[in-house]
Write a structure and sequence with these properties.
The structure holds 3 protein chains of 3 kinds. Chain A contains 17 helices and 10 strands. Chain A is of the alpha/beta class. Classes of the chains: A alpha/beta, B alpha/beta, C alpha/beta.
Chain lengths: 400, 535, 132
Amino acid sequence: MSEELTPSAAPAPGAANPASTVTDAAGTAARPLDDLLARFRTGERRALARAISLVENGAPEAAELLRHLWSRTGKSHVIGITGPPGAGKSTLVDRLAGEFRTQGKSVGILAVDPTSPFSGGAILGDRIRMGRTLADPGVFMRSLASRGHLGGLSAATAEVIALLDAFGFDVILVETVGAGQSEVEVMGLAQTTLVVLIPGMGDEIQAIKAGILEIGDLFAVNKADRDGADRAVMEIEMMLDLGHMGEAGINRWEAVQPNSGALARLDRTGHHAADELADVKGLTNAARHAAERHGTANPGDISWRPPVLKTVAKDAQGVGDLVARLNEHHQFLAETGRIERLRAAEAKSKLRERISQEVARIILARAEESGDLQMMTDQLANRLIDPLTAAQAILAKHLR
Amino acid sequence: MANERERKERFAGVSDRPVQRVYGPEDLSGWDPERDLGEPGQYPFTRGIHGTMYRGRLWTMRQFAGFGSAEETNARFKFLLQQGQTGLSVAFDMPTLLGYDSDHPYAAGEVGKLGVAIDSLKDFEVLMDGIPLGQVSTSMTINPPASIMLAMYLAVAEQQGVPWSQVQGTIQNDILKDYIAQKTYIYPPEPSLRVITDVMTFAAKHVPKWNTISISGYHIREAGATAAQELAFTLADGCCYVEAAMKAGLDVDEFAPRLSFFFDVHNDFFEEIAKFRAARRLWARLMREKYGAKDPRSWMLRTHAQTAGVSLTAQQPVNNTIRVALQALAAVLGGTQSLHTNSYDEALALPTEEAVKIALRTQQIIAEESGVANVVDPLAGSYYVESLTNQLEQEALAYFDKIESMGGVVKAIERNLFQREIADSAYRFQRRQMSGDYKVVGVNAYADSDEQINTQILRVDKAVQRRQIDRIASVKASRDGARAAGALAELHRASQTSENLMPYIIECVKAYCTEGEICGVWRELWGEYREESVY
Amino acid sequence: MERKLRVLVAKLGLDAHDRGAKVVARAYRDAGFEVIYTGIYQRPEGVADAAIQEDVDVVAISSLAGAHTVLIPQLIELLKAQGADDILFLAGGVIPEEDAEDLKAAGVAAVFGPGSDLDEIIQFTQANVRRA
């Protein structure tokens, strides 16, 4: 079995032979893809840009590109930035990039905008609001259209992040459309999730808190020069307190007695927190998530209580503090071993997703070729068979 | 029933408001001539701001001019005055509008292209050479640096020995419409509004005949707004300035009589006439009822008008002469105080002298030959025109509510209300044109397939920038360096206080500081505004 | 997955008339393009960076002011110098015939005057994109 599990550079059986790679034979230095890889490795931005296009378009070369570059990934601090439309995310991202640059860090930016469901086109206007840092050669920005992906993030976002990571950016900022499920998705892709809100949306915060409060590692109340900023901060703090005990920032608790028996049962690393808490009555999903990602309130433990900061992105107010906290969160993840677990979880979900995609593709291709797919489809359409039985019949025959 | 059939299902003009086949008394229910129409020259001024209107005095025929260097523009001014024009209007080039000197890298390729380049008082002296500032009135279309251009005008007047109390003219000075549509902003709204109120306060005391702001719908309309949006957004901007000045401590009647407006005149003939009438009525009501103005002059909406540049076509360009004539006629029937008529070749490039002359002659024909200037508000009482006037007023009021609910004009700008509304209208109109629902002669109807566009085009001498750069160098070399530096330092200091900035600006100008140096002080202090683009 | 065409709609220099640029941007979107719009007051260097990073097939520049004869060729040179010579360049706006000739000589594939048919612009773009 072990031989069969050795990763192979050859395309999987049945996969389309990537036309533009011409051949896999050795010594074909003239292959466009080799040239692209070579230029990518020397840090040519145009090569990165082209690689992103290949990945976005699901081009045949994309898989090979990622295979060659994968070993270079895993070094960047990936920060997801989400929040409702109009919260000033782009302007804030521009400011964050500027601040990271003053710390000598290179910054890759991805901004996702929605694709029109009617035309399939999109207008990607985030560069306008990011004009301050884009002239800096240490900043690279790419606009992605969601391309009909349900969650609101582009299906290729994870792979595009991998390319930026492989290219060597210290920090990758991923700005989402702030609608649909993108907040939850970005949490899956990022190590740190920053939720951007604005004052004067009290009721709206109530409405979205279930979705948004559980995913934030940090909260920024942007446009804090508007009325109601302090109230918004207070409201968020209060809601966070419902799901977590402690003070903002890295909490090295000495002797504070946790006031909940449920939380006291968590182990030092919080590793089993979610599973254990799932059995505890009365705890919300938000609390479970927070507990899993932010650690416990056990005396002596290191835990993370999401800080809530005020910013005025247009005037760069509060941005220095925010970056300090983003760095602190990264440090928290590293110190508590969570960064490895995040990577492991991410690897697992990537693998699962890939396997199910590949299996589906292979089985469907076989069933199609044998005519079984058509046959079962007809039977199903004529109500001669139910969907599950039909699927099982196809799997029984072709899953070998 | 066959004779009931119409050419199309829906009839609508350029603003896409559906219109009925015919209008009658039932369309004016609730309309009270006493209250809603009044007498010419009387509240609410629906019929015009003067009792005699054009029987007393014709509108001012004011042609926007300026290109290349100050010398060339000065020659064009003298030509226009000779032709019987009664007021000057200065167009500036883009670097001047945006506060960059001609030697700034961003100015490359733009110097003198869309208007005259003004870098320092030296240029302004040349621009106004031989023109008696005590006798002409001058309109300057400029916004963030408007205070600087007014300062230069006052400095030249002083050199000519003309007291400030006698100089007449207008600066556009309307920054709100820049955030909304025109985009020639430099600084964020707050400091921009501060400079504007400083100018209003200063002029109210020292330059009483100067119109310190020309609240402009023109650019809003040209950016794609409908007539109702133009009306609503412009008057909302006007209210914002009134409130800013009152907040700065001015009495409304001190400055309101010096407020003036600037509207577009587009293709839909009756809608345009109604727009001017609705604007006057609405403004009068706002000023008297909302802001408590007591002086009847504060209630009057005085306006300049310009024919719609956006309606001009590059195809069959001579047709533009007819478009301009119809639009000009609408402006006159609407009761405008002054008018610029576009030249037929402006869709191709800057107008030639011949084209400018035809445009001016168009106004003169309307004034002298058509007979429309003989009667005040001749369309009053028309079921259609009165009902359109009512409708436009109602539509504007609905927008006021929307703006109010967002927390006022500046907040609505920040939240892109105007930008979004305008972009939607612009796109809708373009689509109507593409589908043939709206026909443009020579473009999507009656087009000449083999047309060669062959109009003479005025080209700007590329040497203009070279000369401007040389002049800046010689001005900087010959001026009193210590005085210039001191003036800029004082402006820098005063800008951080609540002092009125006009005296400091005037001192900078007299010390031959350049426009770029003065704007540079504010750029450093206040930063540059960036828009959140909406499409 | 089909390859989406990406177009950068840009304004160069101090020309702030963006009605045309926005209308064209929407038309491209409605025709299924991904449109990167960079806003007004752009320098050639910034637009070139954007074109590279966004890996666009088309750069469409709208100009209603004078500087197109200087700034558009500068932009094209910058992109060619970085090897991005497979981009389709289009220009639109108030561009006199003589200038249009100069721009074509500098590498602009087509110049669309005021009132151009949006569908015609789209069709021309689709037919002339150079990258495979």
